[in-house]
Design goal:
The protein has ten helices and 16 strands. It is globular and about 55 Å long. It starts with a strand and ends in a 21-residue tail after the last helix. The longest helix has 21 residues. Helix 3 links the parallel strand 4 and strand 5. It has 363 residues and is of the alpha/beta class. The strands form five sheets. It has a seven-stranded parallel beta sheet, with helices on both faces. Strands 7-6-8 form a three-stranded antiparallel beta sheet, with no helix packed on it. Strands 10-13 form a two-stranded parallel ribbon.
Amino acid sequence: MRVLVTGGLGFIGSHITDDLVDHGHDVLVIDSLSPAAHAVEPDYGNPEAEYRILALEDVDTIADLCEGVDAVCHQAARVGLGVDFDDVSAYVTDNDLGTAVLFRALHRVGFSGRLVQASSMVVYGEGGYSCPEHGVVSPGPRTVSTLRAGEFEPGCPECGASLATRVVDEDQPLDPRNVYAATKAHQEHLGHAFAAATGSDVVSLRYHNVYGPRMPRNTPYAGVASIVRSACEAHRSPRVFEDGRQRRDFIHVADVALANRLALTAPERIGGSYNIATGRPTTILEMAEAVCSGVGDGSIRPVVTGEFRIGDVRHITASPERAGSAFGFQARIDAATGLREFATAPMRVPLGDATGEGQDPPG
């Protein structure tokens, strides 16, 4: 099968490319090598794949490259929370407009096959909660005043009572709470429209907290595991925000690559959205302790600071059962083992360091 992978030199896209090549597929990669993500061209490109360095902006060129592809794996995106709201146009350009151009090009060449695109857990906003009196509820964004007071757990929006957490499934309403989340929700909506117009089988994979080799660093677009790893590498104690008890689902990039291959090659139509997670929650403090345990003599320990970021959610964990039923996905690497190994895994060259010899910034 000939597969077009956008963003195939990125963190997740490069692992998907390797996995597809290893399983006998013919892979064409498009990547812009954005300076927001890459200091230099990575040296981990797969020699068995074909690469084209260009952005998703010229519909005619993209259409030419889409001729003859059997399936598409759309990973190209600007990720993370960014610096501040001034990033909004860059996110919309890279994520929404880039996706629209890709879909337009595929429409031009009559594509009607399987398209798998990267979505994210951030489309949910907060995770799942229930109130003893009011049942399943959706708490609003946390306020600066409550966070400053160290009141990190959201309360019931009806009565203010303490809430029990629950895993979310794909039927939970979308509630994007930052620019990146809004672009991911829009990508899913564009996918629905493209599927309706072309008959394509469009699949959106909602990744949870992905970590592993080739993860970016020294960038405001890196994930929390990368920030912890960078601090450890610089022999500093990682700073853990809030009280460290916020829960996430950390999933290894090799498992995310597996999920993409299984979705791309599923024998029946599977269109829709799917959680890609382990199903086993880990707190941020537990993650930081696991990464620290893999470094040197174990003398580096995380420090819980009570700091916070507006826009962060408290808890978000999800059920991967639907992906298991639809295309056989099940994560293979448990977080405790994977995060310890991540402590010494090769990372991407830091931004601003074309030689690869620079130091990471404070974590």
